[in-house]
Amino acid sequence: MADYYESPVARKYADVFYQVSTLDVDAIRNIAAREKVGLIITVCTDQALLTMAQVSENLGLPCYLDYATALNVTNKQYMKKVFSENGIPTAEYVSADNIHEILRAGLQFPLVVKPADCNSSKGVVKVNDMAGLEEAFNAAKSLSRSHSVVVERCIDGAEISVDAWIENGKAKILCMSRNDKIPGTFVIFRGIYPSREALAMKDKIQDAAQKIADAFRLKNCPLLMQCITDGHEVNVLEFSARTGGGTKHIMINHVAGLDVVDMTVELALGNIPHVDDVSMADIYLADEFIYCSAGVFDRLEGFDALKENGILSDYYLFKWQGAEFDGSIKNSGDRIAGYTVIADSLESLRDKRDKALREVRVIDISGRDIMRHDLFTAF
Length: 379
Description:
The chain is an alpha+beta fold and 379 residues long. It has four domains: 9-73, no CATH class; 92-153, ATP-grasp fold, A domain (Dna Ligase, domain 1, 2-Layer Sandwich), CATH 3.30.1490.20; 158-268, D-amino Acid Aminotransferase, Chain A, domain 1, CATH 3.30.470; 284-375, Aldehyde Oxidoreductase, domain 3, CATH 3.90.1170.60. Helices cover 31% and strands 24% of the residues. It is built from twelve helices and 15 strands. It has helices spanning 25-35, 48-59, 67-73, 76-85, 99-105, 130-143, 196-200, 202-215, 248-256, 260-268, 303-308, 346-359; strands at residues 93-96, 111-115, 125-127, 149-153, 158-167, 170-181, 188-193, 221-229, 234-240, 284-290, 295-301, 314-317, 324-325, 337-343, 361-364. The strands form three sheets. An eight-stranded antiparallel beta sheet has the order 9-8-5-6-7-10-14-12. The protein has a four-stranded antiparallel beta sheet with strand order 1-4-2-3, with helices on both faces. A hairpin with a 6-residue loop joins strand 6 (170-181) and strand 7. The two termini are 38 Å apart.
């Protein structure tokens, strides 16, 4: 296992751990050769796909993506170009290496600025004026490995997260949920299923997924699409040839009865999983993600009892004891924990979620509750 953190939560499950960034291609290649590994895989993260594909290709290891395809599906600059050329609905945009290219494009504020090749919403900012654009552009460029930036027209609406599986070139929808974000940011604090917004646009979402499979020549792989809908049209913000991050694979299992992590491993080993037509489950589910004010994390409280009583389906810890928080929330990687609530009605889901919110706490080394309870708006 490789991770740039010293003590990631998954470290205790690994036989061997290397504190190395998964984006450091040379380091990962050297480790893989030294350990004589038979498979390199990442499942729920975006930019590490490129490392997986490149090192696997270099060492002759099995992989479900070749390097050229991985490069195409992890760079928003190339991605948006292919969208435009293949009739895949997306916001008006410009790919820019300098601020003058944006001005020449004539896009009107508000705008969304994104690094061309980042993940977890790092560097993604909505701007309303020239001063904001210059600041966001420079920040995004510094975060981009290719020093390129995508700027697009801001579209208001509900953000839909779509997980699909591509089998022999055919896209099959597994799960459609809505992402709720902290107001004024692009940081997700909740995923909720079902999404009435997605259900109303299901045919258009299916059409977009198939067009992506065709345009990018994706034959067998997972597919994650981030879309936005105003209730009339669907626009694809971006996509990746992977499963949704965080706890999305657990949501998919509840909704579609499929273990997409196992399926991706099987695919990487050369076995093509078969997916029948999916009937999404008649349940209500919310994944709530927890962020903190400043402090040093010590422990969670209240979670075990709620799980034992059936209020929580499960809960997840994303950080480790001793992790330090400065109180800022810049991207989804700043979440400390999360929990899943499942019910047979929306009313019951609200009741369970509200009870959990009243009783769970994140305790720092001084004994204070540093959980940002205020972020959990009603749904």
